[in-house]
Amino acid sequence: MENIYLAVIDDTALASSIYVNIALAGITLMLIAFWSRSIQNSRARLITYATMMISVVSISSYMGLASGLTIDTLVMPDGHALAGQETLSLWGRYLTWTLSTPFILLALGLMAGSTGDKIFSAIVLDVFMCLTGLAAALTTSSYAMRWFWYLLSSAFFVGVLYYLLAEWPKEAKAKGTGNIFNTLKLLTVFMWIGYPVIWALGNEGLALLNVGVTSWGYSILDIIAKYAFTIILVLYVKKEPEAITSPTGVVSATAR
Ligand code: RET
Description:
Blueprint: H1 4-10, H2 12-35, H3 42-66, E1 72-75, E2 86-89, H4 92-111, H5 116-138, H6 143-175, H7 178-201, H8 211-237, H9 242-245
Antiparallel strand pairs: 1-2
The chain binds retinal (RET).
């Protein structure tokens, strides 16, 4: 079997899409650690810790790819554009999204002042979205089944979007975090929609993009959906605004 680590290193586009993210996740982690030194309030700290975990998972995820541990060559079934040929699947991405995306949703749900049941539901839907996405990537027995998994994953994604677009904005407004939540919500929704688009166009879907371009597609989405997201969020939370620190949230004019 070919050495996957060498196959990655020899493909400059593919290798750079991986190593750039390890560096950026490390920088983001150091920035959060630096900015959050003075945060006293436990709610503000919990949100900050959740954002730190996003980068911790990211470093591990990209290390899995860099070392070749979570990449395999798969032979695509009949019907696929690359039928009968070997193509690289960076399946570790889908696996580790099950660990990183819950922290993004936890941070967003806490910012919105949502309740445990809703945050739990959004995270469960999200984990199933990632796991069925992993199944879509790894199924090689039938082309139709690959897309069936994709559709199932998309159905879970619609559930996640429901919380982001319908439930949490009104809670955030009531809590006094409406503006920042709105910014983070738009960033998240637009970036997250990019992932199924890249999957569909990439080497594992319609194969209109080669493996290096596909990987860069995900890497760019990751840079915005994880590091830019985290930085915007932590810069807001570190000021410990009352909307975050007060248990009920709703900040009255007199309380300020
Ligand atoms: C897949 C393919 C199947 C259909 C759908 C997908 C959605 C993936 C998403 C991923 C988000 C990942 C993030 C990672 C950060 O670490 C699995 C690509 C709907 C929305 C934000």
